[in-house]
């Protein structure tokens, strides 16, 4: 756990994203302390990745509302594109889901890393090359010099993701967004990569937002967890609280399906997220909730503190009329 | 990889062989007696027989083919009956350079104009610019090039007097004069390709720009011009080269028409005048040269894939 | 082999992938306004061709020494040529020649392609190999060059042009037919039919042909414009249709020498040709996007 007194590096308030008539994110509010690691957890379609993409301002064709204050940079959602270009890769960087398709197939991995170093840090060719080899070494790529001239398709999935990590960390960013960095990898390598990303960000004192669908992995690796359902925050708090003292029925369902992974049969929580056109007016989870009350269908529950009087950044909050 | 390349070369040679048999057969199928044409209106039976034997025309088809093929490869393509010049010199040293100059000019125009237009249309997708480029591209692919050539002559050469009406100046001898004489023909021939490349670039670039590596490039702080030109356009090279290789036929047949419009002494003019003068050996030479060019370039295109797309090199 | 690639040499990738899911029950004419306009234009040409004797103000080959190279006027709306022939009448009759030559040569090409393609697709073994190399070789030459070679043997004239252009188009047809046959062949029902020892020809007739004919018909409509372009190119080169036939290519060539002071001589038939080609290519694109099941690019 980090020092609770540090300034927030990122304060996200009322982030909403619309694509056509669909509301993909609905007034998401969260903050991230300097050096903190935060996990965004939920089913696919919950809007986890949209948060990361919206922060990078890479969401094309969508309407984005709200603010995202980053320390020393301003509102990420309102900055002119020219300033965003300067932030991306330098203070703010992102690791993508599938490194195999996020690396340009036409250039060697060495060239892609060197380009970032030269363009973003203004290093000379030789400096950039030796930095690149250092970075490759630090992310656990063996034979880094030999791998410089490899094309992405010549590397294994794990190696590709290590390259992505090296590129993302090349300029020592303040905030790293990792969008399900392990979902395309073998289970055996997943934990390795997550540990690598965490170790690298912590050693740099950077903050990190992890998008994950695995609650157990999130609670093991991150300081704090935000559970999303259908574009809304349903529960947020320190990892231990979320895992052991969760209040929202959806978090419970997520946790129980995590436990079932051990039985080899990965089952998603029962039912499916309703389509955007049929989203209930009240609690969005009401259609699937075992504890639903008549009130839930018509009235949306606000986020409330789990413990009276607490309002620090590590607070445990949930949104439910009939909590566990 | 080398095995694959060798296989492709072998297949190419087979196709060339079939084409050569067919074009040799063409000569045999042609109406009119070549001996009679060569000897003129009055000749004796002895002269006829001796020339037949001299040319090997009394031999069986395959023997004649083999004889012809050997001589063809050696550059002995016979003599033009009417012009009484060596066909190899005429076709290879005089006509071919003109056609190649015209073709390469057009290709350069097509790429230099078509790719940027396509990129702009893709970037400005669904705007007025995009719609305008689409209409131009559609018109350009369907508009007959020989008509366009005449219109260009009428407007730029006759009305505006900016360019010469017709004629050929070798850019090897007079560089600027050559270019000056090539602008209108090059533009005429390249219109179809500009249109085609614009459409292809737009369609493939839109697809490429939706790939994750484009978003990833932006996420690394690449400015948009680099995202488009370095990360996007690099990845459309392969479909572009493929289509250019396939459409080379259109380019080659376009040279025939453009050469006639602008009076350029290339393979097209050679072919047309040979057909009118019933000089089958010249037709044959033109057909063989065109086919060899087309097949050869497509072989090069095939062999260039691993260069263009690293994923096609050694698989791990 | 380099040459047998999915794209036909003179067709383009569609600017947009086709919409697979039909949006409701709206008719193609409402969904594709450009297609509808182009179809109306093409239909106009067909009507002009059929009713040419009633529409044309003059006899297309009537020479009038007193009215040579006249600019467009009330008497001659599109002007006259160097023999005093009325260009409007020649353009209208020209539609006849263009459409007849285009249609018949495409039919020849499609018939030849059907035979070779079926044979190549069904034979297998060395026969298939030889036929494929033959198709490759035909495809190794651009259709205009092939047509020039055939004209060299056949000589000039409307009928010769039809045959030469038709023969030159066999290659692409044969290739698509063979591809269709191969697709049908791997489908289970043909194998099953062969297993049940139904006579071979009946298998072809009942199972293979129906699956080949429809895509072939689509190809025919698309390639009519190519045939018209190649045939008018031959005439333009002076080795196709012979004068005084009112052929557009020929008229453009005749006018070329007078472009500096009588530009209408080339321009009028030229625009007639260009408009028809553009209309046909829009119609062709529309038909292809609506009906061609193999449109998936690169498939």
Written description of the protein model:
Chain A is of the alpha/beta class. Chain A has helices spanning 48-55, 81-87, 99-102, 109-121, 125-138, 144-147, 157-169, 187-203, 215-221, 239-244, 249-259, 294-298; strands at residues 8-19, 22-33, 37-41, 63-70, 74-75, 92-95, 175-179, 207-212, 224-229, 232-238, 304-305, 317-318. Chain A has an 8-stranded mixed sheet, with helices on both faces. In chain A, strands 2-1-4-5 form a 4-stranded antiparallel sheet, with helices on one face. The longest helix of chain B has 37 residues, at 87-123. In chain B, α6 (128-142) packs across α8, α7 crosses α8 (175-209) and α7 packs across α12. Chain B starts with a helix and ends in an 8-residue tail after the last helix. Chain C has a single domain (23-50, 86-296), classed as Orthogonal Bundle (MetI-like fold). Chain C contains 12 helices and no strands. In chain C, α4 (87-123) packs parallel to α7 (158-168) and α4 (87-123) packs parallel to α12. The chains are: A alpha/beta (324), B mainly alpha (316), C mainly alpha (299). Chains B and C meet through α1, α6, α7, α8 and α11 of B and α5, α6, α10, α11 and α12 of C.
Query: What is the distance, rounded to the nearest whole angstrom, between the alpha carbons of the first and last residues of chain B?
Result: 13 Å
- List low-confidence stretches of chain B: none
Classified in CATH, the superfamily of chain C is MetI-like
N-end to C-end Cα span of chain C? 16 Å
Mean pLDDT over all positions of chain B: 83
Q: What oligomeric state do these chains adopt?
A: heterotrimer
Measured by DSSP, the beta-strand proportion of chain C falls in: under 5%
Relative helix content of chain C: 55-70%
Shape of chain B: globular
- Structural Rg of chain B: 24 Å
Q: State the domain count of chain C.
A: 1
Question: SSE string of chain B, helix = H, strand = E?
Answer: HHHHHHHHHHHHHH
Let me know the largest β-sheet of chain B.
none
Beta strand % of chain B: under 5%
